[in-house]
Amino acid sequence: MTNKIRTRIAPSPTSADKTLHLGNVRTALFAYLVAKKTGGDFILRIEDSDVARNVEGCAEGMLDDLRWLGITPNEGFGTNNQPYGPYSQLERLTRYREMVEHLMHKGLAYKCICSEELLNKQREAALAKDSKSPFRYPGTCRALNKDPDKDYVVRFKSSTDGETIHDDLVFGRIVYPHKENQDWVLLRNSGVPLYNFAVVADDIDHRCNWVIRGRDHSGPNTLIQMLLYKAFDAPIPKFAHLPMMNNQSGAKLSKRDGAVSVKSCRALGYSPGSILNYLSKFGWGHGNKELFSLKELVELFDISNCGRNDGRFDPVKFATINYEHLKSTDLTSNEMYATFTIPFLEERGLNVHFEHLLSLIPIVRYKCKTFIEAANELDPMIRKEITIDARAKELLTPEVKPKLQDYSTFLSSLNSWTEDTLRSETQHWLTQSHLTMKDIGQPVRASVFGRTQSPEIFKVMAALGKDMTIHRLNAAI
Predict the structure, then answer these.
(1) Which residues make Cβ contacts (< 8 Å) with residue 413, sequence separation at least 6?
(2) Confidence of residue 255 (pLDDT cuts 50, 70, 90)
(3) Are 165 and 180 in contact, with CB atoms under 8 Å apart?
(4) What CATH number was assigned to the domain covering residues 390-476?
(5) Is 329 within 8 Å of 366 (Cβ atoms)?
(6) Fold matches, 6-87+245-315 and 89-242
(7) What is the arithmetic mean of pLDDT over 362-384?
(8) What ranges in 136-257 are assigned the alpha helix state H?
(9) How confident is the model at residue 257 (pLDDT cuts 50, 70, 90)?
(10) Which CATH superfamily is domain 89-242 in?
(11) What CATH number was assigned to the domain covering residues 6-87+245-315?
């Protein structure tokens, strides 16, 4: 790939949650990767022509999702780079009318006044004649030789002779016979375009030379669009249709399948890098390598390595990849880890200085599978006053409290307060006191952490500091 690729993600702003579905994210990721590999452009366009279903604020929410994931568009909606704007369809209605008039002037489109009532009758008659044959508009208004005096739609004049050959970048050569063609509607009587016309008009004006999308768009959509490109004498972009993302049962992935949107993944405490890593495996691979940073994906991704088989969303594997990302400083730096954990700390009413939080991240990241778990582990190390839970209280028996008191007195005498010092000096004190760590380890953990399980106790004590550790020991006693 030597020429710069201009490609796009074009979601519809119809999500009630104002977020992107993971299927859209996978498409966006692949588009981002092929664009960045050639120093090209990744464009965000909003397909908002379905006015009745549009959700206010959804477009902005989807852009926020892309930014959070790290695959930020460098051109288009919501950016400062809009050389071929506008990038939302409702702002392009005048342009669609101009392009339709151009086709009508060339004799490739015409006005149709057939009412919905008439079309329904024709559809019923066709079904009665052959229930297995889909209804095709019979071209009733092709010969209309005067401007209509009532509402009309604009139809594309399609040929039913010949075929169109499409060389897909993933699925190879596909032949579309024209015998099933009909005169599709380009423009409704409201002036709002239908999908296949709008997407071609948009891609022409936005200079998109690659189109990456799901396999469900292959077939009639691709044929219609290729015929429209030819009608406009416009270069046909390269098409790459990706295998589908299905649920565990093999059906199309939907909200009922759980964490299938960016918003839901964020709420579960997943990292952006792990989401992109997991989605990259749907239809693409690089040998036996399982873990990738976004930088590595840009370097290694090649559309020619995409497979054709649909994949099934596996929440267990997804969680595993997220855990691997959270454990690895190469995949999730301490700074990133702290940044993504802060919202979950704030939900707990905790505010912490970023530099202090940064020092705590190495203590918890080896065991936490999500940022939610990280916030839970960090909570007792940040909160000034802790509540000792019921199970931990059971460890604070009358027999153990004198030992804790002696240990507290010993800790007060220490001049150095580091993890290594605490470990070595405590061992020395235990030997002198004829005790072992088993005698005080769990009670100390219960006292300073408030739970029966915690990160390594000397790491916790070092993070809390001398005064807070002794204060909590004495409070527990």
Answers:
(1) none
(2) low
(3) no
(4) 1.10.10.350
(5) no
(6) yes
(7) 97
(8) 195-205, 220-231
(9) low
(10) HUPs (3.40.50.620)
(11) 3.40.50.620
